[in-house]
């Protein structure tokens, strides 16, 4: 079974995006919010053996709440 982990400021929208790419997605879990993007990134870096893409694809806007997510597929 494969898994994926990442960080985001918009977990509900990211879940929908991943559901489209991985129709067999299950066990979706959200972690956080983290105190900063850096703390969220530290969490993501520890999600071995899940596939990860460090940094997320969202800008680090002031006041943003960062979350981690993980799912199996």
List its salient traits.
single chain; alpha+beta; four-stranded mixed β-sheet; globular; 4 strands; 73 residues
Topology:
Blueprint: E1 3-8, H1 11-21, E2 26-34, H2 37-45, E3 51-52, E4 66-72
Parallel strand pairs: 1-3
Antiparallel strand pairs: 1-4, 2-4
Protein described:
By secondary structure, this protein is of the alpha+beta class. It has one domain (3-72). 27% of the residues lie in helices and 33% in strands. It contains two helices and four strands, in the order βαβαββ. It has helices at 11-21, 37-45, and strands at 3-8, 26-34, 51-52, 66-72. The chain has a four-stranded mixed β-sheet with strand order 2-4-1-3, sandwiched between helices. The chain is globular and about 35 Å long. The protein starts with a strand and ends with a strand.
């Amino acid at each position: 079974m494969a898994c994926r982990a990442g960080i985001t400021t918009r977990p509900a929208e990211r879940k929908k995006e991943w559901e489209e790419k991985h129709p067999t997605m299950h066990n979706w879990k959200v972690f956080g919010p983290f105190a900063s993007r850096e703390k969220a990134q530290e969490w993501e870096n520890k999600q071995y053996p899940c596939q990860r893409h460090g940094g997320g694809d969202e800008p680090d806007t002031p006041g943003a709440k960062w979350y981690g997510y993980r799912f199996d597929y």
